[in-house]
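Tutorial, part two.
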Amino acid sequence: MSDKRQRARVQGSWAKQLPKHSAPGAAVRSNHQSTSAKPAPGSWKFGPQNASKNVEFHQPTKPVRDVPPERVIEQAGDYEISHGPSGVSRLRLLPGFLPPEEADWMFSKLLAELPWSQKTNYRQGEAYEEPRLTCWFGELPYTYARSTMDANTQWHPLLVTLRAAVEQRSGCSFNSLLCNLYRDGRDSIGWHSDDEASLGPRPAIASLSLGDTRVFSLRKQPPPEENGDYTYVERIRVPLSHGTLLLMEGATQDDWQHQVAKEYHDRGPRVNLTFRTIRPEPEGHRPGTKMRFAATQP
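Running the prediction step on this input gives:
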């Protein structure tokens, strides 16, 4: 008896129940449900798929604009670079205005004998040293960037000779001269216009270059609706080589800005002589006031 009870306990403890037989339809329904629950191939969603929508293309709200290509001026000639409400803006380029040997001698002499110094300017109340050396000649002082260069009537004799030659060739007369010395490629002058009230309306400025070639760049003033954005304005590039004369006339100072940018490769020194005509500051205006602002003041 004990052996029978022991066998019964073993069988009861380890015996497995047979699976219950389900109705044939249930298996079919179960398989159908599991198949329909699987996502469709290539779908990232589970469950019923939404009906596909047609893709609509919308035109951009603003027209696509191209940046105008930079224009390069290298050949001698007269160039009307723009026509606008302010008038016609003109450049006159004269490469080889001075013969090479004469230019070499003048460059060495001016580099050694002019009273070069570094001017301190002010921007938004902060003082900074100009990244070049300058000196000024004229019977009146000249103010720009909130800093004044004192009158200096002691013209170097060579500068008197050069002024006469520039006046004869350009047909303009000048009573003042701003000299710039770019010692290397790191020296520069930023974007600006020579439109101080003391220069008068539509000033003519003659720029004579001696020494290493530097690029003189111009960019057109954007229209008022651009809110000072220069992205799409016209641009001009003028390489100024040893002995070259460049004359800016008409509305150039009203409608364009110019600069000599830094160049990050070897550049030797360059002397730039900018002949101009200075008038007494308009009465009631701070020295260095821009002409376009002065014209609107009561």
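The radius of gyration is 40 Å. In part three we will examine how such features are distributed along the chain.
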